[in-house]
Amino acid sequence: MIHYNTFSFFKGLKFILLFSSIQFLFSQSTTFAQKVQSGIDILQETNFIDLKGKSIGIITNPTGVNQNLESTIDLLHNEKTVHVKVLYSPEHGIRGDHAAGDKVGTYTDKKTGLKVYSLYGKNKKPNAEMLKNIDALVYDIQDIGVRSYTYISTMGLAMEACAENNIELIVLDRPNPIGGLKVEGNLVDPAYISFVSQFPIPYVYGLTCGELANYINNEGLLKNGNKCKLSVIKMKGWKRNMLFSETNLPWVPTSPHIPNSLSAAYYPISGILGELYTISIGVGYTQPFELFAAEWINADDLANNLNNINLPGVLFRPIHYKPYYSVGKGKMLHGIQVHFTDLKNAPLSLLQFYVLQECHKLYPDKNAFEMCGQSRLKMFDKVCGSKEIRIRFTKNFLVKDIEELWTKPASDFKEKSKKYWLYN
Known about the structure:
By secondary structure, the protein is of the alpha/beta class. It is 31% helix and 13% strand.
């Protein structure tokens, strides 16, 4: 007969071994879970074969890194079979050392000694001199999937320059951080093409930058209907229904107010309204794009009104804060914080119009469009891609009046763009 204590010991040991095995298997499944590889990871994995012997320029910024956070600039500059001749900087600078809106001239990258041409200053499009002795431009920037974010404008204008100068554009593809299934918004009217609405695509366009480049190129959206020689280094492991948090890739802030991948989902909920500069959207506080607040708002009333609409995948919480800069600097503001309960099914870009709708119901004497100057209205229209959205909405301040204008073009675009999908 086994003594009770001995029996208990073996029974306990069996449990410990079983539990340890389960822990080990779980840790291994977590460790070896499918990890998305971005375009630069694939390029590195294939020993840069697509660039061998080529003289290249690189359009990138701090987000151009591999899965180990090694810079694309440094990886390519140190690769002996690739000849990096020049760098091109979008908004915020090649190393992220310039503030939003800063106009930057030509300078030298201290780390590599390479000349850096700014594409967010006098020239937003590379000219022939800037492309001299270049075989190909390599584009590697993490985007956020929203039309008004200027990196895709930089990419599109670079495509035009490549078409005009017989140079290849090579896009190192990256995930759309809010997935490849969410498409929202109207297309840009021709009269409203600008650097914040460079192409007739929806506000939330549901494509990776590589897919978007294919769409722009093959739909004749470049100047004079030109096409450039385009190559896309595809990712591995990315699926259309993935949020960035599901990729296991490191997030590098794409700009100062997009510090994490969830910020990319908040940007389209408030970025249009934010152009009016009459209601704070959290820029200047610790939660950019997540908040809507003003001195004249009653936080509880606005939260109750918005929650009573029962929008899918989102809840609203009363909040009070003092911005450190920007709209409402140093003043106590009252409003709401947006919380996603189901981001994949939540409306994004129409949320700001619901906020305007409910503010108008509660405070009809506080018209956000009349409280700003004409220059801000023009910027609002540019980001919207049309003045029709503002004109139709402000007649009654009802979201239902613009829903078809906002959703029908998006639905049509999604179907049309499917033939350019590189991932399922």
